Amino acid sequence: MDTKANNITTSSITVPKIPASIIATGKILQYLAPPLAVLYAIKLFRTPIRFKTPARENMMADSAQKKLVMIPELNKEVMVYSYGYSKRKILLIHGWSGRGTQLFKIADKLLENGFMTISFDAPAHGKSSGKTTMMNEFVKTALFLEKEFGPFDIAIGHSLGGMTVLNSVKLGLNVKKAIVIGSGDVITDIIKEFVAKIQLKLKLVNKIKQHFYRKFGEDIDNYSAYIAAKSVKIPTLVLHDTEDKDVPVSCAHHIRQNLEQGEILITNGLGHSRILKDSKVIGRIIEFINRK
Asked: Exposed e or buried b for every residue in 134-164, given b needs 16+ CB within 10 A?
């Protein structure tokens, strides 16, 4: 298998281009009222962009059984997509600013191989409620849906969804195998990249982390993928592309190094999203799932 590496050492999730007005507001707050600049940055960090469902996902969106499910611990409703019918179920988890139908190509091939997929619009995404969210809400949603729609044989996640899969397994998601695609890694590095993207001073990073510590009672870095990977004992396939401009390929290697039963496939020229639709990648996923 191809395990080609590069020299990038930071980790990240997709950070869309920030409008000039938002950057200007942050800079003004940073100059006049630094504590407000911290709260402003945190709000931006927690607010995903809701993109319109592209036409290519309509088949899955229209064909799947859809149900709004309340997640009691979050007091938020999420849209759940049940695609196909089988006792062999696979949980699909999209990334930041994604949708429950984003892994449609993978879902279609899974249906052909006798599986049913359960996916969802994460809180504050797609047709789910809320305006802000964090990865811990992705994880709590996944664990709740296991009780309502499981058991699941496999969990597959893309980008932040990959980090969610690893953290969910760490916290008790009972699956036989896991697959992470284009997953980010170290939370502090993600925050650093975000702060740089909105052109604020890097000293805000520690203040943002302190805010989350006060809110959640733990270091947010505990959700880093490589840390979760240390607790994942099941066979896990890590997929990443060398030309992923949103998440460095070094993240995949670091995650793999911390897995007990990890495999890695590094592709070339597919980027962060096209990897989800590549026939060879999907073929490798099916082979990994079906392997005894």
From this structure: bbbbbbbbbbbbbeebbebbbbbbbbbbbbb
pLDDT band at 251, cuts 50/70/90? very high
The span from the CA of 272 to the CA of 250, in Å, is: 13
Q: What is the pTM of this model?
A: 0.91
- Could you tell me if 181 and 246 are in contact, meaning their C-beta atoms sit under 8 angstroms apart? no
Q: Residue 131 contacts by C-beta under 8 Å, 6 or more apart in sequence?
A: 47, 124
Helix (H, G, I), strand (E, B) or coil at 143: helix
pLDDT on residue 240? 98
Q: What digits encode the pLDDT tens for the residues 186-199?
A: 999 999 999 999 99
Q: What is the pLDDT of residues 17-46, one digit of tens each?
A: 678 888 999 999 999 998 999 999 999 999
Strand residues in 154-261 grouped as ranges (E): 154-158, 177-181, 236-241
- Report which residue type is found at 31: Y
Q: Residue 1: CB partners within 8 Å, gap ≥ 6? A: 263, 264, 265
